[in-house]
């Protein structure tokens, strides 16, 4: 297995690895760079059956900042440079495969599972006659929209700001601003992940957070998070902070350094019957927002994109009030089920 070096990629790969090992008793070889493997190992029990293999990676060769072996807290230009630098993995990954085959007396690995960003792995798998699978860590709906947009480019065939996906009409209407660019005192949690976050520490203890929540009325606390990678600009963060304070709502905000809408958070919230305020920022998040808002009916979108102008008055004057009604209706619907 070879995931891209980001929490939203590594964690699903680890979950898949544990599932395959526990249900099929397969031997799992997990490939990544030295620092990432060190972090991942610290989050796993010593008895973990996963085998870790390091691929060499010299950040100096790629003009990356010190210790940049993953995307944590880095701006998008650095993340893009990191992604480009992963092409240097190819010869090292090929050698790892050769060594594995030699160690197994000529027996090939059953399968190579790699991240969607590592398409070059297919060539290595084909060269040695090994089955290759790409693991997409995001939601099926969002990536189905993404695929349709890339294949058909429907926005180029219309003058309208809104259009349908030719081979996926179930996705409803897509707006051009959903296209990714590449086409009172409340506790604020410093985002540093958790044990599930591949070896990171809490910014505040879970017990302290739980005790604070237990003192609040049922269904009275907002949870604010933009996921494990994306965050908003300083000006947007200030406006959101003032709007949250002016709303009078209790809230917990997971704060990352300023540089939206995390797919894992979205569906964890939905699993527990919690309505969502969406602020999609990048990639397939715009289409997840569509799905959860227009199709599932559990999301109200507050803002869209990293460059949108957000003012406190807009959020407090419309979104928060609208959300009050939305929350009430959603909770009534949930209780009726």
Give the beta-strand count: 11
CA-to-CA gap between the ends? 41 Å
| Separate helix tally | 11
**Approximate strand percentage:** 5-15%
Q: Widest sheet: strand order?
A: 7-9-8
Mean pLDDT: 78
Organism: Citrus sinensis
Protein name: UDP-glycosyltransferase 92A1
Structure summary:
The chain is an alpha/beta fold and 337 residues long. It contains eleven helices and eleven strands.
How would you describe what is shown here?
- The longest helix has 25 residues, at 312-336.
- The chain has a three-stranded parallel beta sheet, with no helix packed on it.
- Helix 6 (140-152) packs across helix 10 (285-295) and helix 8 (234-247) crosses helix 11 (312-336).
- The chain has eleven helices and eleven strands.
- The radius of gyration is 22 Å and the shape is globular.
- Mean pLDDT is 78; it is low at 184-201.
- 42% of the residues lie in helices and 12% in strands.
- With 337 residues, the protein is an alpha/beta fold.
- This is UDP-glycosyltransferase 92A1.
Would you spell out the secondary-structure blueprint of this structure?
Elements: H1 7-24, E1 29-32, H2 34-42, E2 51-54, H3 76-85, H4 89-103, E3 111-115, H5 121-127, E4 131-135, H6 140-152, E5 162-163, E6 174-175, E7 188-190, H7 206-214, E8 221-224, H8 234-247, E9 250-255, H9 263-271, E10 276-278, H10 285-295, E11 299-301, H11 312-336
Parallel strand pairs: 1-2, 3-4, 7-9, 8-9, 10-11
Antiparallel strand pairs: 5-6
Helix pairs in contact: 6-10, 8-11
Organism: Citrus sinensis (Sweet orange)
Protein name: UDP-glycosyltransferase 92A1
